[in-house]
Amino acid sequence: MSFKGEVMKKTVVGLLVSILFIGCGSSSTEGRVEESLLKSKFINNSSCDEIIDKVFLEICYDNSLKAAKSVAYKLDGDLVNELNIKDRPFFYEEPSLDRENRASFRDYTRSGYDRGHLAPDAAFDWSEESLEATYSLANIIPQIPEVNQEMWVDVEKLARRKAVELGSVNVLNIVKYNSNPNRIGANGIAVSKGYYKVLYNKDENYEACYYYENRENTNSSRDTKERHLVECSTVNY
What we know:
It is built from 4 helices and 11 strands, in the order ααββββαβαββββββ. The chain has 237 residues and is of the alpha+beta class. It has a single domain (30-234), classed as Extracellular Endonuclease, subunit A (Extracellular Endonuclease, Chain A, 3-Layer(aba) Sandwich), CATH 3.40.570.10.
């Protein structure tokens, strides 16, 4: 069976299992309701100017910030490290947005900030379609290089390990902005003050929340994920 056929088979099986659970009134259904409510707290029509459905991830987008406020997705443990595509796509302007609300590749040039993924490419390199979805500039925010390349990537690896361990893990990336944020580029992309990563699987009674400041002169040499743990009840915009 081809790789795409294998992915489709897993998707169909997952849907059938979900329908079976709902029909039987299993206790795990309660977990799914809670997961849906948690995501809807941050991705909804009141909080988001646009909700961008990239099939593999959902983006809550703010037109005035010209940046994401949150990104949600689910990591399937069976797909983590399934293919590990090496060639990466080019960043692209999000076509579903009006042109005046888009970020561009050049906005980041010589800004001092990385083009930082919220939904990371390494979590979606099991198919060309899923990988390309993460390269929309709507999924990218300005990140301090030290934070993006050393600290944030560490908690992204944790998310993938937990997906393998638990079978799957839901992820919410939530971005915090000041009331008058710094801006970069000709389009005035807002720079965040920091961002959360929320990991959860209610069926396995797992939940962990981390917060990273997007602060200059950050030293990651002695950093640990534990230093960024926060109470999940405190997570907010």
